[in-house]
Amino acid sequence: NHNLAEVQQEYATTNTSQINSFYVSSQDSGRATGGLASSLSPMDEAGDVLPMYEFEIPNTLVGLVIGIKGKTIKELSSRTDVRMLIRQHHTPEKVDTHQICQVRGKREQINRCLQMLRRRFPPARFPELNLQPVLPPPLASNLFDALASQPSWLTLPDAIPCEVVCSSVIDPGHFFLQQPTHPSFSSLSHLDMYMIRLYSQGTDIPDLPKPCQTGLLCAAPVLGAWFRAVTVSYYPESDEVMLRFVDYGGYTRLPRSELRQIRTDLMSLPFQAIECYLAHVQPVDGTWQWGEAAFAHFQKLCMGKVINATVVGFNVQDKVPMVELTVLDEEGKVSTYVPIRVDKDLMEAGFAKASDPSKLQKVTSTKGRPLSTNPTPMVAAV
Q1: Long-range Cβ pairs for the range 139-142 (8 Å, 24+)
Q2: H-run or E-run covering 119
């Protein structure tokens, strides 16, 4: 489990150039919708995520592929600009007969490496080397601290301050939060790495059915990686799907043909991103459009650090939680922190004004939590 001090240290060292989300305009909502935020992805340290291809090598050929003092594998790697690794097979029945060769690089570089390998080991002489992709094994259930038989959404407690990080920002009044001290959070990096291995192989994992239903859990490609997402809207005229990313938050629109069905072993980890609205404020001009300066101010205040969120109510229309955000911000001296309420700070900076209080259904001890806006998604599973 992450403790708060570890999490604060981790996000204090986040490269600010990696904090920005990418954005895609929603054609059905009339407002800009945020894409997947990269700031909290474990892929950040690796920079651009490179595709990976894995195939089997019979033990009888491993020495030839490596070459004397590694000459062959080094030459293949340098000439095609890939990274090659030979490791033990993950299937117990094949440990004594085969090993796995992993090739990592850009797609065209991987193809060039495989072509060179095929020329050096022609199928007529080496029929046992087929270069067919091998899927990684299913995730072990003990990787996850919190298992569920059905996909589940994490929530924030009512009226109790909770340590969070902001993983995706649509605008200063609409964002997604993660709970880095939740027991399941540490398993997210395992899931991210595993999905890259599984879905970047180019294997025959089926895409989503056409026409595509809404509320369908799937795997979606983003910047070379793959992430869990749920379908929100389907556009039959263009065969595109509006998606919501369930672990990092944000929305984007992608062709249905680029989406893939999801394996059942990828559904145990609770969905990490919690969609929220900022309580008490709206844009200063009375519209629903926040300006770029307000957006930049919010990002500087909230991104890349641990902050506190308190659920004070729910939006009366869509039941999305409305939260107060509190930031501990340095002021002058080292180790001197002053708590800042984000809604009040936006008003003082001239970016926001008080919102209509009737839009907020307050949390009380006698009222139950309203029905969730996050129903259990259906699953297109393989």
Answers
A1: 139/190, 139/191, 139/194, 139/265, 139/266, 139/268, 141/265, 141/268
A2: helix 107-120
Question: In this structure, are residues 246 and 178 in contact, taking their beta carbons and an 8 Å threshold?
Answer: no
Which H or E run contains 186?
none
Closest CA to 185 of 161, 163, 215, 209: 163
Rounded to 5°, the CA angle 219-202-257 comes to 50
What tokens were used for 30? 């009339």
Query: What is the DSSP secondary structure assignment for residue 191, as one 8-state letter?
Result: H
Chain-centre distance for alpha carbon 274: 13
Task: Specify whether the CB–CB gap between 161 and 308 falls below 8 A.
Answer: yes
CATH 3.30.1370.10 range(s) for the chain read 52-120
Contact 196, 225 (CB under 8 A): yes
* CA-angle at 251, arms to 189 and 220, nearest 5°: 50
Please give the class, per CATH, of domain 52-120: alpha beta
CATH number of 4-47+142-379: 2.40.50.90
Copy the structure tokens of residue 146.
Answer: 């919190």
Amino acid 255 reads: P
pLDDT per position as a tens digit, 26-57: 333 333 333 333 333 333 333 445 677 888 99
Residue 345: φ, ψ to 5°:
-65, -40
Mean pLDDT value of segment 119-141: 80
Residue 244's identity, in one-letter code, is R
